[in-house]
Amino acid sequence: MTTFLQLAVSGIALGSIYGLVALGFLVIYHATGLVNFAQGQLLMAGAMTAYVLLMQLDLGYPLVLLGVVVVALLLALVFRYGIHRPMVRRGAPTENMVVATIAFGLVLTAAAELGIGNTRYGVDPIFPGAPIAIGGVSMQTQSIVITAVAWVLVGLVWFFFTKTLTGVSLRAVGLNRTAAAVSGVRVSRLITVAFALSVIVTAVGGALVAPIIGAGPSMGLAIAVKGFAAAVLGGMSSVYRGMVAGVAIGLIEMLSSYYISSAYAPVIAYTILFLALVLMPARVRKSGATA
Amino acid sequence: MSTTAIRTQTEIARPVRHGSRRAVFWAEVIGSVVLLALPAIIPSAYQLRLLQDVAIWSILALSLTLIFGYTGQISLGQAAFYAVGGYTSAILQTALGVPAPIAWVVAIALGMGSALILSFPLLRIHGHFLALGTLALGLIVETLLVQLVPVTGGHDGILLPGAIHLGPWVQARFPYIVVGFLVLAYWLVRNLTQRGMGRAFFALRDDPDGAAALGVPVTRYKTLVFMIGGGLAAAAGVLYAHHTQVVTPEAFGFGTSIEVLLIVIIGGMSSRIGAVIGAAVIVFVPEWLQFLQEGENLVFGLLVLGILLFLPGGLVGGVRSAIRSLRRTRTSGEEVSA
C-alpha cells in the first residue's frame, strides 16, 4: 500500500506536468487551430534555462523562474513573428504549418545541444533536503511543489480565460475570428498573447520537472507525446479536462512501470494517444480538420 | 484554412504542360539509365556508399512524397514501415535461414499489409491528428524494437553480413540492386501520379469533399497510396539492412521519420524528383560541412524553416516557378513586339 501511494504521488506530479504541456498545447490550438509539435522542445528550453541559471550561474530560484519566463517570452515572440505569422500571411496549408513547428523544435534541440551539451544534467530541487513522510508515505518535496504549482497555474489560466477581458476576447478569437475582429478585438495581438501564455506555461513546466528527470536537449519528445495524449484524451476542449487526463496518464505510467514492466510503460502511453485519436468522436475530429 | 489559400501554395504542383511532357518523359528515361550505370562509373568505394545512401533515402522519401505530397496525408511515422521492412528481412535471413530474395518479398508484402491494416484506423483522422497518430505509431514501433530483445536484439540489433546472406557475387553488385530499386520506385510513383489519377490525388488532397462529389473514390485512393507508401518504405528498409549489414533501433526511430519529412520539404513536397534531390542534399551537405558535425540538425532545421517561409515548393518548386516566370516574360515580350 505504501509503495502504491508513493507511486501515486510521483504519478500525480509527473501527470501534472503532462497536463501543463496539454494546457500550453490547447491554448495555441484554440486560438489559431495550430497543433504545435514544438511544445516538448519548448518545455526542454525551460528546463535547460533553469539548469544554466541555477547550476552554472548559481542564481536563486526566484531569479531562475524569472529567467525562464523571459526566455519563454522571447521564444514565443520568435515563434509567432518569425514563423507563424509570416506563414499564415502566405496562406500556408496545415501540413506546412505542422512541419514548421517540427522544424522549430528541431532547431531548439540542436541549439541546446550545441550551446549547452548533449547530456542529461541534474538540477537541484527548489527545497533541498530529505523527503517528507506523511503516514509512512515518503514524498519528494519537488513532487509536491510540482503538483501545487501546476494546479495553481491552471487556476490562473482558468481565471484569465473566464474573468479577464483579454481572456474572454481570446476565446472569442478561437470561436470565430471574423466576428471577433468585427467586434473590435485585436485578433493578431491576442494570438501573440496566446503564444506567450502557452510557451510560458510549458517552459515553467520544464523548469519544474527538471529536478526530477533532469534537463537535456532530447527530453522534450517523450513528455510532449504524453501531453498531446492528455489533450486528446481530455477531448481537446477545456483546460481542466486536459489536466485531469494528464494526471491519469502520469498515474497509469507510474503504476504500470512498477507493476507490469518499466520497459513497456512508454508503449502504454503511446497506445493511449493512438486509441484516443482513432476513437475520438467525429465532432472533435471535424473541428480539428477545419481549424 | 480556406481552400483558396491552399491552392495558392499548391499551384506549384500543376500538371506539366502538354508540350513539355514528352521532354520530361525522355529526361526521366535518360536519368534512369544514367542512374543504373552510375555504380559502374563511380570509382571509389566511399562515393559508392554515398550513392547507396542517397538511393535508399530517396526510396523512403518517395514513399512519403506519395502519401504526404500527393495526397496530403501527413505521416510522422514512416520509419515504422521502414523498420518492418528492414527487421523482417533481417530476421527471416538470420534466424530462419530464408534466402534473400524470398525474405525481401515477404518483408515488402508485410510492409504493405501492415500499412493496409493500419490505414483503417488512421484514415479516420485527418490533418494534425493524423500527424499525432502516426507519431504515436512510430514511437510504439521504436520502443518495441528496443524492448523485444529476443526478436530484435534490442539496442545491439541484428547483424546481417552480406558475404554470408547475399553471397560474394551479389554482395559485390549490391549497388546495382539499390539503384535498380530506386528506378523502379521512381517509375511506380511516376505512373501512379500521372494523368487522371495524379489529378484525383491532388483533388482529394486539396478538397476531399469536392473530390468525392466528382466521383473520386477518396477512401480507396487514400488506402491505396498508404499501402504502396508502406511497401516502398519497407523496400527501403530491406536495402538499408543489407547496405549497413546491421539493423539497430536508432536507424528506424523518430529521428528517421523526421529526416524523411525534411527531405521531402527540401526537395519539393509534391515532386518525384524532389525526393531524390532532397535525399542528395541531406546526404551530401553533412559530407561537405564536416566541420559542422553537431550543428548539422541546426542547419537543416533552419533550412527547412527558410524553405517553408520563402520557397514552399522546395528546391524543385523554386526552379519550376523560376522557369515559368522566365517563360511568361518571354511570351509577354513577343506579344508586345507582335
From TrEMBL, chain A:
Source lineage: Bacteria, Bacillati, Actinomycetota, Actinomycetes, Micrococcales
GO MF term set: transmembrane transporter activity
Membrane-related topology note: Multi-pass membrane protein
Family: Belongs to the binding-protein-dependent transport system permease family. LivHM subfamily.
Annotated TM spans: 6-28, 63-83, 95-117, 137-161, 190-213, 267-284
PANTHER family for this protein: ABC TRANSPORTER PERMEASE PROTEIN, BRANCHED-CHAIN AMINO ACID TRANSPORT SYSTEM PERMEASE PROTEIN LIVH
Protein name as catalogued: Branched-chain amino acid ABC transporter permease
CDD domains per record: TM_PBP1_LivH_like (cd06582)
Organism annotation: Agromyces bracchium
First-listed, main subcellular location of the protein, grouped into a coarse class: membrane
Pfam families on file: BPD_transp_2
Automatic annotation (TrEMBL), chain B:
Keyword Transmembrane helix listed: yes
Localisation per UniProt entry: Cell membrane
Keywords recorded for this protein, A-Z: Cell membrane, Membrane, Transmembrane, Transmembrane helix
Endpoints of the signal sequence: none
Protein known as: Branched-chain amino acid ABC transporter permease
Record field: transmembrane: 23-42, 54-72, 79-96, 102-122, 129-149, 169-189, 224-241, 247-266, 273-292, 298-319
Bilayer topology: Multi-pass membrane protein
Keyword check for Cell membrane: yes
Recorded GO MF terms: branched-chain amino acid transmembrane transporter activity
Source domain of life: Bacteria
GO cellular component, one term: plasma membrane
Organism: Agromyces bracchium
Main subcellular location: membrane
Coiled coil start-end: none
Listed InterPro entries: ABC_transp_permease (IPR001851), LivM-like (IPR043428)
